[in-house]
Amino acid sequence: MRKRNPIAFFSSTVNSPPPAANNAIDHLLRERTRLYLICLLGTLPPFILFLLPIVQQMLRIQLDFSTGRTVLQMPLYKTQKHQNLLKSTDGRTKFLQHCENEYSSPVFDFFDIIYVTKLYIGTPPQEFTVQLDTGSGDFWVLDSTCGQKGCYKGCTSNGAQWCNAQCDPKCCGQNGGGETTTTATQQVPTVTPAAQFPGFRHAETEEPPSCQNLSKFESQKSASYQETDMTFSIEYGLGFAAGLIGQDFVQFASDSYETDGLSVCNAYFGQVNQKNIQKVPFSGILGLALNASKQNVDPLFIQAYKQGLFEKPLFSLYLATQGNVNGTLGGVLTLGDVDDENCAPITDWIPITHNSSGFWEFQLDKITLDDGTPINVTSSAMVDSGTSFLLGPFDEVNNILRHYGVDPENRTMPCDKKFGPIIFTIHGQEYKVDEKTLLFDRGNGTCIVGLTTLESIPSWLLGDPFCREYCQIHDVEKKQIALPQAMKEK
């Protein structure tokens, strides 16, 4: 992959100031980007196209139907849920439960614990900080109705159980789901006066802590938003998220559609109105697995690839090690190619062994320790950028901890004591993770070992300590993954 500066992917003839939210269509037309108009044909209500001002604008605009594909690189930033989580038993328990044209986007790093990037949704674009998660396939952001049980299409089309759990009782009909009575529907107030684009309708309630102080998507402010009757729910190690699925422009890397961004037309994404994941510095999760959790919706990268935005069905994730710092540049997510600037050459492609699961899961040959001691392996493994530590089956993890003299009950040790390496053999090649990425300093001379277990976990989750040692190169077409050595920062 040749190194190039980000290019202006879309053409524009007019520079305009940021629009007011209620002037979204006018702003969209002034921008005059060919992607806006192409997407508009499939997103806005048909009568909109016959409005005289829009027809006049369409006749005057010269569209740039460039057929070139692109490679997008997104810088990443590292974040931390809350540093004091590491300094209490309860917090630590919760914490343990729980990468031809070139284009880039940053990844932010918070204390080597969470890696996030920025995305933009809607017209005009609304900015969101999302965690990168190769261990799940759903892309979602918080909705403006977070914590409120509203009325929307999915309430009456997904059965009584969903309706009673997620919707205002007035929307569920007398039978607790199914058909909604006309009287009940009329009793539910609208979000904003005369909202002309689809969105939630809800009764006002107090926002719960898990929804506070985070960016939320306001569908009524987006001219290109489409409501659907689909819903979703997903469970994580730290909790769950649930809501409905909408469609809109999703922009990688930039809040300006006309310059260095790349947009996915009619992208499906989750609008979360119920969740119990708390104390996190992000407003959503960008799932990068092969399949979404339950609904028949492709993950965002696959949606973009199917739209022809990328020539190669590849994305790469590089995570840097920045230590005890917050919000710094912490890696790169490359969409559409291999990141040969931050990753060593690929020496092996690892086949995915459980295609039906939708995860980047592969066979784990064996695990050995510093003196060659073997650990009995009975499971597969998957690389998971959304997991802060290494997670494995109960017996295997505890045997490793005891080998290095660490109590499995609290998983702490003096920071000056040796721990590691742990050597994973995958597809015949060895991948070593050492103490530099496995130990997290609590600030009092003791470290938490970044290795834990959940009794029910069936396979190894090779989380961020592994991801900082090895890049992840994913091939969504051939369903294979490469793990070249990460190039350390100079």
UniProtKB/TrEMBL annotation:
InterPro entries per UniProt: Aspartic_peptidase_A1, Pepsin-like_dom, PEPTIDASE_A1, Peptidase_aspartic_dom_sf
Residue ranges of coiled coil: none
Positions of transmembrane segments: 35-55
Keywords: Disulfide bond, Membrane, Transmembrane, Transmembrane helix
Keyword Cytoplasm applies: no
A Pfam family assignment: Asp
Active site: D133, D384
Disulphide bridges, residue numbers: C146-C211, C415-C447
Domain (Peptidase A1) ranges: 115-484
Superkingdom in the source lineage: Eukaryota
Protein family: Belongs to the peptidase A1 family.
The protein, known as: Peptidase A1 domain-containing protein
Organism: Heterodera trifolii
Upper classification of the organism: Eukaryota, Metazoa, Ecdysozoa, Nematoda, Chromadorea
